[in-house]
Amino acid sequence: MTPAQLFDLSGRTALVTGASRGIGKTMAQTLADAGAEVILAARSKSALEEAAAAITAKGGRARPLVLDVCDETAVTASLASLRDAGNAPDILVNNAGIIERSPLAESRTDAWRNVVDTNLVAPYVLAREAARGMVAKGFGRIVNIASIMALHGKRNAHAYASTKHAIAGLTKALAAELGPSGVTANAICPGYIRTEINVALQTDQAFDASVRTRTPVGRWGETSDLATALLFLCAPASAYVNGHLLVVDGGFTVTH
Ligand SMILES: NC(=O)c1ccc[n+]([C@@H]2O[C@H](COP(=O)([O-])OP(=O)(O)OC[C@H]3O[C@@H](n4cnc5c(N)ncnc54)[C@H](OP(=O)(O)O)[C@@H]3O)[C@@H](O)[C@H]2O)c1
Which ligand 1 atom sits closest to the C-alpha of 70? Predict the structure, then answer.
């Protein structure tokens, strides 16, 4: 294969969750740029429509799917409907995620469960339902968006760190089970990427300075910094990469 063919997603359908903004929105654009038809899923209808329209305006193929990833009935029905329409995703990017920051003593169990439902249970349900179509086709790519908090802990982020460690385990288990069917499962572990999820940290001068000094490349990441990692894991180029956690953090974790 030529380098262009190795990264060509023409003829593929990709489902990206959390595509209404931030990392997922950029990832959807990246997959569309590589030739995939992209289904952008999240709860915010107007933001999704805007993101899909931006892709279409650039000549790509995209459509919005209003979906709460925590609604198992809706997730199952959406995937079944895509399969019935002959449009089962070849690529699933489990990106939707939330964080709850609070000291342990002040944390609430319902908030903890909400993080677990969004960051862990939903990716499991989505992988299970998307894998049905992938296994039938003998091809699939599942990419879970984990975090450097899949590798280490952080104060005030116990629920988040727990789910991100667990998504690493889920990724490896999916890789082991689905690999024989031509479906790979990998995860990306981003470092500090400037999005809405961490606006409070970006505007905290001390925290901002610590990210810049503790990250060897000397800056926060941008959503575009994750694009090539995602494309690699979704493309023919990564056929023999399975169960891998790809850290994209400017070197943050190697120095901590
Ligand atoms: N930014 C970072 O530094 C960083 C670092 C490591 C890992 N990550 C991970 O990267 C992923 C994306 O984060 P981000 O920084 O892009 O955050 P973000 O800007 O806050 O975007 C989060 C996305 O998830 C969607 N979402 C949340 N709950 C949902 C639900 N129940 N159903 C459907 N969609 C839902 C949101 O859409 P709606 O609100 O419209 O539903 C939004 O599109 C997350 O898994 C996060 O943990 C981020």
Answer: 31
